[in-house]
Structure prediction request, 634 residues.
Amino acid sequence: MIRELGILIALAVVVAVTALVNTLFLSGQGIRDLLLNACLVALLTVGQTMVVITRNVDLSVGSVLGLSAFVTADTFAVNPVLAIVVGLVVGALCGLLNGVLVGLGRVPSLVVTLGTLSVFRGLDFMWAQGRQINAANLPDGFLALGSGSVLGLPYLVIITVLVLAVAALHLGSYRSGRELYAIGSNPEAAVLVGIPVGRRVFTTFLMSGTVAGLAGVLAVARYGTVDATVGTGLELQVISAVVVGGVAIFGGSGTVVGAALGALLLSTIGSALEVVHIAQFWQQAITGALLIAAIALDRSVALRVAARLRRQSRGVSA
Amino acid sequence: MKTLLRWESALFVLLVLVVVGGSAATGGSFLTDRGAFNVGSDLAVMALIALPLTLVIVAAEIDLSVASVLGLSSALIGVLWNDGWPLEAILPFVIVVGAVCGAVNGFLVTKLGLPSLAVTIGSLALYRGLAFVVLGDKAVADFPDSYTQFGTTPVPGTWIPYPIVLFVVLAVVFGLLLHATTFGRAVFAIGANEEAARFSGIRVKRTKFILFVLTGAVAALAGIVYTLRFASARADNGTGLELEVVTAVLLGGVSIFGGRGTIGGVVLATLVLGGLTDALILDDVATEVVTLVTGILLLASVFAPAVTHRPTRGTP
Prediction:
């Protein structure tokens, strides 16, 4: 909880400072934009968090989102409902492939998802054949999903929060969720106590792919225009958000809520820089510096906790 | 060692297939002097960075910031050239900056004990961001021909591009460094079992630090080659190249868990990738399909050994 609090404070400071410079930043529309901009990355962090907790990584999420987005947009001409289902299925199939290779094939996830990052993007380009699908080709009802809202809350935000809640509940209160932390903390020990490590890791990749598929469908609704490059490079933003959000890159700790707040913080910093008229060129540099600071901080906290535990255990035995 | 030799032979067979298939599919334009020149020039930038990165991965670390260092180096060349610096001063300066970038990575990994994957994802964004901060989205292209010829013309009397000469020299240097020196043996020992390496008196942190500095310096050198080859200094030069380089290293049979790999394998792998890319592009296949094929090759290269003999989990 302390880590989430830290991110919240950082978020509050960024928002407060920016609001002082430009009052529009905290208008109703301003807040809506902040939330909407963070939504897709926040959604992707849900799957990524589960993967990273097990001491793995999924670099293919940007490509999965892109592939799913194009296939969805392309299927709309045939059947709108089918399109959404197909988008989700494409994501799930991508996750399935990653999961089989990593969870069951025991190939390191960094290498597998580096490979599938290229493979999925390649498939995306082969499918698209240089075409672009515009909002004019999509039904208004679907586009409203990306821009509309109920009771002032955008649909996108509601969907993201729902997915977050389900994942948080699963990770926090269900045995299969808690076991992910055990796997990430100590894979050998997890095997010894009888946790089905391969199957659990497989499931996290399946989840990550499915969520990326959902994000792909929603990306179509939000942007309306889709080509084969959608989501390129997004994986680094997602991993940055996860790490800034307090999920240890070496597995075993972190929450989806923290990661989502990390996504919100990063996208808010981006918007804030624009609002206070700092050249956008600084945005990437600041994100990078922040990411490094976050892991350094995380490391020092971990070391301090370990030292305290050692002292305590000495006190008990004495 | 046996499986290693087998993998390199497999790569060699693959290379022959690419060359023969490429020549057949492209109706002979592949192996003409011009074709070979283009393969070589396009290959050189990626291949240069793959050399020091091989050592880093053998030591069970990773550096994803290499393409951003390349971009920063290119942006600096542009800015300093606009400021009227002579290229003779810019080039060494840029390499020093690259080494400093590597030193920052090395410091964070060795002194603070942070995981290199996370650190270099961070510095990937940081260095690329700094590239945009110094040059913005401008392009600087008014370099004198006498310099850009380095990247666009072959060594007189041959088809060999100068960048390939540079690559061959560095490949020999890094090959000797990894396979024929105490330093190289230390790199293997660290990758195989860091704890054991430390207990046997190897200065683990210093060795890793040097590897990151070398990688940064060579990435900046690759930035110089890139800038001269395309006669264009831009902050976004080489974006995404880190994935290609890592692919080449892993395809070359270097284990992502460290402790295993050869410079020879990586050189073969870069040739396979370069030849494949060129044959496919000459054959009018979209570059994106090349990406797809590269990805499949990478998956096959890690999956084949994983099926035949299962590695122990994590770093052994």
The longest strand of chain A covers residues 149-150. The two ends of chain A are 32 Å apart (CA to CA).
